[in-house]
Amino acid sequence: MGKSAIILGATGLTGEILLKKLIANPSYESIKLFSRSHSKISSPKILEFIVDLQNLTSFSDDFTADEVFCCIGTTASKTANKQQYKNIDFGIPVVASKLSKQNNIPTFIVISSMGANISSSVFYSKVKGEMETAVLLQNIKKTHILRPSLIGGDRNEFRFGEKIAKVVMGLLNPLLVGDLQKYKMIHPEKIANCMITLANSENKQVIFSSDEIENISNYTK
Question: Model-level pTM greater than 0.85?
């Protein structure tokens, strides 16, 4: 019998790539999607739950699987209200981790961000650090936190500031070597590959920097 997975954020840039890869992977038999809107991808493997992601607890009986992949995230430009921003970037992953613990899901993998630090004076980095801390407090048997740098690729929505940053980082990437490699822009496919590899490995490391995500992805078949 194949494995089952939950994806939070399957309509986003990385989540959509991850979904396509899990569909193509014969190890996975079923994939539950918890999203605000329907995915544009169809497959007999998919079971969709259209939900208010800030009210996941009302779907606790359906929140069962072997693995949870959390690809939730917003931006300051998209969500200007700081409390609403925190409700998304902190609240959704933390509630998902609590449901995973409650329902004995042994694997929880979440995308955080480079610079995440609970003591940071930068609001975005502090929220990500608080999210990581709260997720780790659940003591889920297999927890992996990914801290990618700027994520490349083309989104369905236009983000002007991010677009400029991607152009600049595309030029700088070849110059970032040695200890600076973790600052390189990373493609979302690399993140998706890394998530699947970690879910199917005995790797016990918890937090992964962007260059480590890249390296693990390079070994993905």
Answer: yes
